[in-house]
């Protein structure tokens, strides 16, 4: 079946450090891929998305590239800020479907 | 504008009791989803509505769980004979798009259910 696997947290970084959160997926067909973020005390919100192979989603300095050959969608940011501290969820939606499947989430702590 | 609203934000109940959780989606959103998030896990799909009808309820864990959306807007998730294992955060999301592939989900802040 369809599934998403992301690296376990927590990830603790100093401000201005480089961030990578790994995400791989299993799916038939051509899913759309998403990163959602949950800030403390808030609901999940979409951070970025990519709908086909080699697409790059980007937002707020975060980027992720849809790699079909490695079935990956790793999240990166060149210089993290304290305000980026949150839980990040990788997710997929199968092509033609409506059900979004989420990974377990990765908690990020950024220290000043 | 108003986002997805969920009530109550917190609910503590005793084992065996009946619980209702309410979701008020963003106005005009035709698609509505319920998810369940256990501690340390990602959201787990429960049910999806398109308009008034449940298009897919395959994620409901058993027949103690039921959801309705009678007028195509507000939805209620109903849990009968609650068990301690039902304790989780229940998330509601809505979407304006009937196009599945690119649809962004707009989440509420969730209803935290604790079954003692």
Our Rg estimate of chain B from Cα atoms comes to: 13 Å
Largest sheet of chain A: 6 strands, mixed
Please, what is the average pLDDT of chain B?
A: 92
The secondary-structure element order of chain A is EEEEEEEEEEEE
Percent in strands of chain B: over 45%
Structural class, judged by helices and strands of chain A? mainly beta
Task: Explain this structure.
The complex is a heterodimer of chains A (112) and B (116). Chain A is an all-beta fold and 112 residues long. In chain A, 0% of the residues lie in helices and 50% in strands. Chain A has no helices and twelve strands. In chain A, the strands form three sheets. In chain A, strands 2, 5, 6, 10, 11 and 12 form a six-stranded mixed sheet that branches. A four-stranded antiparallel sheet of chain A has the order 3-9-8-7, with no helix packed on it. Chain B is mostly beta strands. Helix content of chain B is 0%, strand content 47%. Chain B has strands spanning 5-7, 10-13, 19-24, 31-37, 44-50, 53-56, 65-68, 75-79, 88-95, 106-107, 111-115. The termini of chain B are far apart. The model of chain B has no long low-confidence stretch (mean pLDDT 92).
């Amino acid at each position: 079946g369809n599934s998403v696997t992301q690296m376990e947290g927590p990830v603790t970084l100093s401000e201005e450090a480089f961030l990578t959160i790994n995400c791989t997926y299993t799916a038939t067909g051509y899913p759309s891929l998403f990163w959602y973020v949950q800030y403390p005390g808030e609901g999940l919100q979409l951070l970025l998305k990519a709908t086909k192979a080699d697409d790059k989603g980007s937002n707020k300095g975060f980027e992720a590239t849809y790699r079909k050959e490695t079935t990956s969608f790793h999240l990166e940011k060149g210089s993290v800020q304290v305000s980026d501290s949150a839980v990040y969820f990788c997710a997929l939606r199968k092509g033609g479907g409506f059900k979004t499947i989420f990974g377990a989430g990765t908690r990020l702590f950024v220290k000043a | 504008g108003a986002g997805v609203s969920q009530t109550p934000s917190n609910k503590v109940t005793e084992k065996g009791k009946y619980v209702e959780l309410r979701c008020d989606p963003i106005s005009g959103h035709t698609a509505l989803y319920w998810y369940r998030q256990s501690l340390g896990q990602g959201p787990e799909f429960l049910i999806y509505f398109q308009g008034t009808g449940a298009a897919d309820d395959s994620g409901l864990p058993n027949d103690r769980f039921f959801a309705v959306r009678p007028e195509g807007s507000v939805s209620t998730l109903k849990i009968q004979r609650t068990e301690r294992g039902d304790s989780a955060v229940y998330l509601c999301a809505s979407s304006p798009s009937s196009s599945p592939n690119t649809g962004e989900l707009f989440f509420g802040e969730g209803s935290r259910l604790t079954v003692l």
